[in-house]
Write a structure and sequence with these properties.
By secondary structure, the protein is an alpha/beta fold. The chain contains 11 helices and 7 strands. The strands form 2 sheets. The protein has a 5-stranded parallel sheet, sandwiched between helices. The protein has a two-stranded antiparallel ribbon with strand order 4-5. This is Response regulator transcription factor.
Length: 216
């Protein structure tokens, strides 16, 4: 039987390259593609692929979030293979927590990627046992791994996020931090992008929940 695959990557050239590579195999068929998290979440439930190859970093969110969503809502859930350009322990932990079956760097060879698709389609795992053990140990101790989205923010962006949660306007934040209002606006745009939000209110809710979770 053919293995159906869905591709999520914000770079069209990368998607085309992976699709061409996979389609060259008799037992693999690419049934859909997306360039954003929103597109993937809209298309995957209808297509119900065997395997979803998900880019970790996306313009409107994270592949880990997409993995978590489709693993919990699509029946039967696809096996998720996370692809990333960077070796990031926290993203790996997030992938494990989301139920991903594999985590590979984009520098992987074509043969290894094809092999990875076949392995997870058959129910296998490509996750490092040591990394999985660390996550399980954290859970046993009741420690949540840090949110990679928050970790990606600069110290300035974290301060501004806190002020957003307090309900301050850009002008008020600028006065508190001795920054021009336009500079604050640029910081806000940057942190919204990193957090995967489009609205200021979403960031405020996120910041409040993060405070509550971290006890600060």
């Amino acid at each position: 039987m053919s293995i159906s695959v869905f591709l999520l990557d914000d770079h069209e050239i990368v998607r085309r390259g992976i699709a061409q590579l996979l389609e060259s195999e008799d037992d693999i068929q690419v049934v859909g593609e997306a360039g954003s998290a929103a597109q993937a979440l809209a298309r995957i439930p209808a297509l119900r692929p065997d395997v979803a190859i998900l880019d970790v970093r996306l313009p409107d969110g994270e592949g880990v979030t997409v993995c978590r969503e489709i693993r919990s809502t699509v029946v039967p859930p696809p096996a998720c293979l996370m692809l990333t350009s960077y070796s990031d322990d926290e993203a790996l932990f997030g992938a494990i927590m989301a139920g991903a079956s594999g985590y590979l760097l984009k520098q992987v060879t074509g043969i290894d990627l094809i092999g990875a698709v076949r392995t997870i389609a058959e129910g296998g795992s490509l996750l490092d046992p040591k990394a999985t053990a660390v996550v399980l140990e954290r859970l046993r101790k009741g420690e949540e791994p840090p949110d990679p989205r928050y970790e990606s923010l600069s110290p300035q962006e974290r301060r501004i996020l806190g002020y957003i949660a307090d309900g301050l306007t850009n002008r008020q934040i600028g006065a508190e931090m001795y920054l021009a209002e336009k500079t604050v606006k640029n910081y806000v745009s940057s942190l919204l992008h990193k957090l995967g939000f489009s609205r200021r209110t979403e960031a405020a809710v996120y910041a409040t929940e993060h405070r509550r979770g971290s006890g600060t």
